[in-house]
Specification:
binds magnesium ion, binds adenosine-5'-triphosphate, 5-stranded mixed beta sheet, 3 domains, Nucleotidyltransferase, domain 5, alpha/beta
Length: 371
């Protein structure tokens, strides 16, 4: 792997269920980067028929190939990620061991915490530090277990598109990486929740002093909003999707505007249907906040930073903030003095930026990171 290439340059490839996103950065200083290339392409699927895993994979390969050609990307080494219910992230207190010792025994130590057979997963870990637990010195560790079949699926897509997979990360950690470098970085003592809402999955992360304290993926996303329209208005998926993109949510103050025109009534109905679906996502977010706050009275989420394609749903940030009583902002990962974006401009670039956060976080990983 990479025998003839000494380059440390990589591209970040976020293989979502709806879109593939790629980002290429150039390191220009200790903590500075230039955005060289970026692109996004839909994975064209017929949502009215259940497409097979083989069809999905083929569509993903074709979209990725097109994306690489269109954006003239010649870098071959790629960093990608996994998320959803094939990945488990747990906080575990292991007996005090060195990193090397834990590496040798991790399969055995991890077994009780993983709901899959250990032979079916790849296991990774990160030691956070020493803690005292019932009078014993232990190591607080983030344990990551990812099903081998999903890793294989992702690396197959990269290879079939002519790329060389060098790292398979987890969406949540890519989000955190992207957040760390952006302008919205954390004030002292601030605990921030990062929420990336895709089509099928929403990644929820709570970051405390640069460390992920809660990592959770919930299987609710933009497709649920579309499906709610599809079901309630008896339309097909693509019509529902179009209605969602064109309308989004109407906020209460806007709703009090006279609703005499039929057109307005339709908009209000669409908004109400989406609001109901959004509420189940908000409940999941609230659950994560509650869980975090049970750990200590001081643990308060001070801000929510939204990303993913569904963060673009009209007024979603305002509605979430109103329901959760927490400020919500939309993350533009490139809006930072550490990132030179001189090569790009325009409305589309700004609009697309929130959905590129995972790909951006992946592109920040260097080959030296590989163990
Ligand atoms: N302007 C918009 N308003 C509302 N929803 C939008 C808008 N633009 C994109 N979306 C939604 O964003 C979703 C796709 O986002 P994204 O590309 O982040 O998903 P993905 O990474 O492919 O999915 P996942 O991570 O769940 O596998 C779709 O559900 C799409 O309908
Ligand atoms: Mg995604």
């Amino acid at each position: 792997m990479g025998l003839f290439s000494k380059s440390k340059e990589v591209i970040g490839v976020d293989i979502g269920s709806h879109n593939i996103k790629v980002v290429q950065l150039k390191k220009t200083g200790e903590n500075n980067y230039q955005l060289l290339k970026y692109g996004s392409a839909p994975i064209s699927l017929d949502y009215n028929t259940e497409s097979s895993p083989f069809d999905r994979k083929q569509s993903a390969v074709n979209s990725l190939k097109k994306l690489l050609i269109q954006n003239k990307i010649s870098i071959k080494k790629a960093v990608t990620s996994v998320s959803g219910n094939s990945v488990i992230v747990r906080y575990v207190k292991f007996p005090s061991l060195s990193h090397a010792e834990l590496e040798k025994t991790i399969q055995f130590e991890a077994e009780p915490y993983i709901p899959f057979g250990v032979q079916d997963v790849n296991i990774g870990f990160q030691i956070l530090g020493e803690v005292m637990d019932e009078g014993q010195k232990k190591m607080e560790t983030i344990l990551i277990a990812s099903k081998k079949e999903i890793i294989q699926d992702r690396t197959d897509i990269l290879e079939e598109a002519g790329l060389i997979p060098v790292i398979v990360d987890v969406d949540a950690f890519a989000l955190e990486n992207a957040f760390e470098i952006s302008s919205t970085s954390q004030g002292a003592g601030e605990n921030i929740m990062l929420v990336d809402i895709g089509a099928l999955v929403t990644n929820i992360v709570i970051v405390e002093n640069g460390v992920c304290r809660v990592v959770r993926d919930v299987l609710v996303g933009g497709n649920n909003f579309t499906k709610a329209l599809q079901k309630n208005l008896q339309v097909d998926f693509l019509t529902g999707e179009k209605m969602k993109l064109e309308n989004g949510l109407i906020m209460f103050d806007e709703r009090s505007v006279e609703k005499t025109e039929e057109d307005d009534e339709d908009k209000v109905q669409i908004s109400e249907i989406i609001v109901n679906a959004v509420k189940s996502l908000i409940e999941e977010i609230q659950r994560s906040i509650d869980y975090y706050q049970t750990q200590s009275e001081e643990k308060i989420v001070s801000r929510i930073v939204l990303s993913g394609g569904s963060a673009r749903l009209n007024n979603l940030d305002k509605f979430m903030s109103q329901e959760l009583h927490i400020p919500v902002e939309i993350h533009n990962p490139f809006n930072s003095e550490k990132i030179d974006t001189n090569l790009f401009s325009g409305e589309q670039f700004i609009e697309e930026a929130p959905s590129l956060v995972v790909a951006f976080g992946l592109a920040l990983r260097r080959e030296r990171d590989i163990k």
